[in-house]
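Recall the central idea of this unit: under ordinary conditions, the amino acid sequence of a chain determines the structure it adopts. In this exercise we apply that idea directly, starting from the sequence alone.
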Amino acid sequence: VQLQASGGGLVQVGGSLRLSCAASGRTFSNALMGWFRQAPGKEREFVAAITWDGGSTYYVDSVKERFTISRDNAKNTMYLQMNSLRPEDTAIYYCAAKYGNYPFGAYDYWGRGTLVTVSS
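Accordingly, the structure predicted from this sequence is:
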């Protein structure tokens, strides 16, 4: 599956952005999808994941209650709604996919990232 993230940009503290991840190729609707991010000088970290049917979602503690992951299998697209953004959310955001049920660990497919910058 090929993935392309979009929707990043510059936003002020407390603002919102919605990231999208468009998928093509292998069946998207069967894939467990995730968002990751990598801040300058830091390792890439898990942000959120969603099961193939959207029935279960998972978040890193630092984004709970602020970010919402969702998907539209009819459109082969996954989303990350980011609210109440903080400077520490500044990072390149990547979407990823795997075929399995475990939302953590290694993912098999990765898209190019989209940069999110939160300014104070």
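The first strand starts at residue 2 and ends at 6.
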